[in-house]
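Colleagues,

For the teaching module next term, I've prepared a clean inverse folding example: a structure given as tokens, and then the sequence designed for it. I'd like students to try predicting residues themselves before seeing the answer, so please don't circulate the second half yet.
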């Protein structure tokens, strides 16, 4: 089963992808994570994308389509979770072609519907471990020891470079201008399912599980 998690910055896509990996052994394909890996590697591509990400703008369709294409060609996941991809109509078309090439199809697009004020609060309180990538929320899911990762005792938690007020404004604008048209696109295709993303993590996971169980019958 291949699914897309669709929603604005901070809506919980990464959190729900982790829950699906744990519960169903699915494989997460997060273009945000791929781009952060590229920027950390210091390659020419990494340098190009770093400034775009920090400003909160979208990286070009060409770059992200090719990252996803490489992953689909190299992996034979039992089920892919596309997290943060597609983000434009051109990316949605590219995904549909790529899946077809690999004999796969999109089973569901889960939209995490959420109040914009809640998004800002979540982003402002997000910290993560630079070592293992664990994500915390200082308000909703804080670490046991203030400022340190629960799994890597010496690792100090950090904020993401693009989790600041200025960049967040641009990220939200990019989402509403370029990504939200996908809601209509997938509604029309019959793949769209909407979930109340304002609820707590477990309740959102339960709603998603119900949808996936229903369509896999
Ligand atoms: P990306 O990494 O995809 O970031 P994003 O879409 O902005 O989403 P986030 O990672 O900020 O949030 P999330 O929805 O995963 O929420 P999370 O689970 O962490 O992209 C970053 C950048 O890369 C883009 O701006 C762009 O430049 C580039 N990029 C990426 N993909 C691209 C593409 N396809 N095309 C072009 N450019 C691309 O949760 C947030 C916080 O809330 C956490 O602290 C979490 O603990 C907490 N939380 C989660 N769920 C709940 C809940 N139910 N209740 C309370 N707290 C919760």
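(Answer key — instructors only)
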């Amino acid at each position: 089963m291949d699914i897309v998690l669709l929603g604005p910055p901070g809506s919980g896509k990464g959190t729900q992808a982790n829950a699906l990996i744990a519960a169903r052994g699915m494989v997460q394909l997060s273009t945000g994570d791929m781009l952060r890996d590229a920027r950390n590697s210091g390659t020419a591509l990494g340098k190009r994308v770093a400034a775009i990400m920090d400003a909160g703008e979208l990286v070009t369709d060409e770059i992200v389509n090719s990252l996803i294409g490489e992953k689909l060609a190299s992996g034979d996941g039992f089920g892919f979770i596309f997290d943060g991809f597609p983000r434009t109509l051109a990316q949605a078309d590219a995904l549909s072609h790529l899946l077809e090439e690999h004999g796969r199809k999109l089973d569901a697009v889960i939209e995490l519907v959420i109040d914009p004020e809640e998004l800002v609060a979540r982003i402002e309180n997000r910290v993560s471990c630079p070592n293992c990538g664990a994500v915390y929320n200082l308000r909703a899911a804080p670490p046991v020891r203030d400022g340190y990762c629960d799994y890597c005792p010496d690792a100090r938690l950090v904020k993401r470079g693009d989790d600041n007020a200025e960049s967040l404004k641009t990220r939200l604008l990019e989402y509403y201008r370029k990504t939200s048209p996908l809601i209509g696109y997938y509604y029309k295709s019959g793949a769209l399912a909407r979930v109340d993303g304002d609820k707590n993590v477990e309740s959102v996971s339960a709603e998603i599980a119900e949808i996936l169980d229903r369509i896999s019958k």
